[in-house]
Design goal:
Number of strands of chain A: 0
Helix content of chain A: 55-70%
Number of helices of chain A: 5
CATH architecture of chain A: Orthogonal Bundle
Order of helices and strands of chain B: EHEHHEEHEHEEHEHHHHH
Shape of chain B: globular
Number of helices of chain B: 11
Largest sheet of chain A: none
Bound molecules: nicotinamide-adenine-dinucleotide
Oligomer: heterodimer
CATH class of chain A: Mainly Alpha
Strand content of chain A: under 5%
Strand content of chain B: 5-15%
Largest sheet of chain B: 8 strands, mixed
Number of strands of chain B: 8
Strand order of the largest sheet of chain B: 3-2-1-4-5-6-7-8
CATH topology of chain A: N-(1-d-carboxylethyl)-l-norvaline Dehydrogenase, domain 2
CATH superfamily of the largest domain in chain B: NAD(P)-binding Rossmann-like Domain
Amino acid sequence: MEAEREQELIDRFTLATFMEAARLYEEGVASAQAIDIAMRAGAGLPAGPLAWADQTGLDVVYQKLADLESRFGARFAPPASLSARVEHGQLGIKSGAGYFNY
Amino acid sequence: MYVKKVAVIGAGTMGADIAYTVAMANIPVVLRDVDEKALERAKSHIQKLLDGRVAKGRLSGPDAAQRMSQIVFSADASALKDVSVAIEAVPEKMALKQKVFQELDRLLPPLAILATNTSALSVTEMASVTSRPTRVAGMHFFYPAHMMKLVEIIAGEQTDKDVLDTLSRLSEEIRKIPVAVKECPGFVVNRVLTASMAEVMRFKVEYGYSAEEIDQTIVKHKVAPLGPFVLADALGLDIAWDVAETLQAAYGDRFDPGPELPALVAAHHLGVKTGQGFYPYSRS
Ligand SMILES: NC(=O)c1ccc[n+]([C@@H]2O[C@H](COP(=O)([O-])OP(=O)(O)OC[C@H]3O[C@@H](n4cnc5c(N)ncnc54)[C@H](O)[C@@H]3O)[C@@H](O)[C@H]2O)c1
């Protein structure tokens, strides 16, 4: 697979995972912690999707989503919980807070 | 609430493993099925799991026999009368589940908890046919239930908090990891997994890569332990398609996996269990 396609595949996989986790969080179906534990214990993911976003940097996640949204449409539109954190400078681990506190 | 005795209703793939897990924690359990053959299969499956632990030196012979003695295999409903928590694991059909819930409601003590292992059906709809909707909840185990640690504890619209607490504690007692989830199609794990699976299936059709190439790339980047195509084949493509359709109806086209999954299902290529899915499997 060409490098560019490989990156697209990994982005689409990880961000589709993150988007659904963020929707569950915003709908109040489960807490951020419960969602991450569920995906680790129930699907074997190496990191919970929300902790993954905090680690990647919420500004970076936001930018990737904005790019994917322009190519593939609304299913990648940055979720409100992400936009609000980025606006407040809560960018994940590197700024001490994101979906979780550090 | 103190859980004195558990019942597992349906001794199939999930029910047998759940009963084993409960018995391993030394909690008495009634494993009920309407089919004597299913009970016999469950008994030999559980015996094999226990023998495996003895062979590995993780359990003594007498302890294995003692765990087995915690399980009453029963085709007779009267064995259920002093049960504190029933976990229903009959086939995924609402009418059947409602029938089972009505029977449990009639037989079990008034404060007993009725839990369902459903993957996708509404807990609230099952609760609605009982006289105790506040004592009905979901307890969603993952396959294989004797190994997978997660249990999603699902609140229906009317479920009491103490019911959810009891089921969480029971999950921990049987060495599982409970997470609290409000009822919604797919709950947490299947909803997230199906969203990413559908995205990757669309990627495959757009660019024409092989399932193998995609799965290997995902595993190589360590973003998941298995690629989505290996996972779907193992789960059964009929089940994967069923879940995708349900979630697409509930949430929209982000759950549309594209044309390949339904085409394989229509051709009865259902994955590992039929010898062909996204990958071929030798059936020896
Ligand atoms: N198999 C999985 O991977 C998986 C994972 C999570 C949840 N689930 C859910 O668990 C439930 C059971 O699935 P399964 O794969 O174990 O099914 P299964 O077909 O292997 O077993 C179902 C058992 O229920 C018995 N049964 C039927 N009617 C009954 C009745 N009225 N009273 C008592 N027993 C009855 C059947 O004889 C059978 O032995 C379903 O709701 C399914 O969605 C399955």
